[in-house]
Amino acid sequence: MTTLSHLECSKCGERHEAGKAHNLCVKCQGPLLVRYDLEKARQNWSREWLMRAPASMWRYAPVLPVSRPECLVSLGEGFSPLVSCKSTAARLGMKNLWVKDEGINPTGSFKARGLSCAISMCLELGIKEIAIPSAGNAASASAAYAAAAGIKCHIFMPKDVPQSNFLECKAFGAHVTLVDGLISDCGRIVGERKAAEGWFEVSTLKEPYRIEGKKTMGYEVAEQFQWQLPDVIFYPTGGGVGMIGMWKAFAELEALGWIGPKRPKMICVQVEGCQPVVRAFEQGAAASEFWQNANTVASGLRVPKPLGDFLVLQAVRESGGTAIAVSDEEMITAGIQLATEEGMFAAPEGAACVVALEKLLANGFLKPEERMVIYNTGAGLKYLEAYSTRFPRHMASEADKLGGLITPR
């Protein structure tokens, strides 16, 4: 049973009542964060309880917001494997390199966590229709969970979104609009139409519950390392909610008495063609500015202005971490090498973290003896168009067999 207490604005601290549908703060339009009665949770919940808990993110139900079990919409998301990457570690002169593989989640990405929680809360709050702008994987997840919940789903995606995401959304019965632009343009359309259409917006950080699902990645890595956090966490940062959620999770875990004050260095990884958070970090700014002409084959990293950028920067700085950008070519090469070395076909976003690791080892920011975790946020199979740039002849023959479904670049 949840220990949900209230919602709190991440900017001004304004308190908002739980049990009602909220988007942004009514006072300053800042993102809302869910707060729990952690003292109550500490008294009634223990780490030993997890031995009998389900092998999904809902094993942490006391610190998740759903209060009515019948409203929980789950497709088996969470509790993803923590894979030891011995071959890659040996090549880099390391001993402790792990990948938290989120590609095994429903719809093939970590977005399943956030949308499972958000759609469950929509069902609990009586919301009948949702709308979401997405670069791809969030659209797939929202369509899947909305279908499972019997909620109408309206999706706005860039027209060059990966084919897998478009096909999934259509198969799940969502109403899909392809937009000639970026995710920011999709978000603008949702914002302009939602009031008249009666849609509840579930954009990144414009509702408070997606972050709660994603924070379970932090609970899991702590549990999987037997309540000793790693030294370093690499996180591919588009909207950055996963990093924000994990940072929130670590604070909650300390309040529960399950971990101590030690925190991992949080490494924000972006791409050269869209690096607003990296630029803000390097300039010492509190928030980012809109990145013009954003361009990358990693659709999840093509976010020109994250709403929660100030929270990402806060986590990076408080942890003693850093922000770094890599090129598309480096990212795809690393993804193929990771597949060859470890048998893991990662999304380009996850592969970008491998490049970042190599660069930060080379410049001495990180030490090879540190225990490091890379978050691979999705399955490589969701990005066949991106990887086809390295295998054009092979992919062309496959495209012919599939009737032109995949178009090599």
Question: What key phrases describe this protein's structure?
Answer:
single chain; 409 residues; alpha/beta; Rossmann fold; six-stranded mixed sheet; 14 helices; globular; disordered C terminus
Helical content, roughly? 25-40%
Q: How many independent structural domains?
A: 1
Adjacency order of strands in the biggest sheet: 4-5-13-10-11-12
Whole-angstrom Rg: 20 Å
Order of helices and strands: EEEHEHEHEHEHEHEHEHEHHEHHEHH
- What is the CATH architecture annotation? 3-Layer(aba) Sandwich
Instruction: Let me know the number of strands.
Output: 13
Query: What low-confidence regions span 5 or more consecutive residues with pLDDT below 50?
Result: 402-409
Secondary-structure map with pairings?
Layout: E1 4-9, E2 15-16, E3 32-36, H1 38-44, E4 82-84, H2 86-91, E5 97-101, H3 111-125, E6 129-133, H4 137-149, E7 152-158, H5 163-171, E8 175-179, H6 183-197, E9 200-201, H7 210-224, E10 232-236, H8 241-256, E11 265-271, H9 276-283, H10 309-319, E12 322-326, H11 328-342, H12 348-362, E13 372-376, H13 384-387, H14 392-401
Parallel strand pairs: 5-13, 6-7, 6-9, 7-8, 10-11, 10-13, 11-12
Antiparallel strand pairs: 1-2, 1-3, 4-5
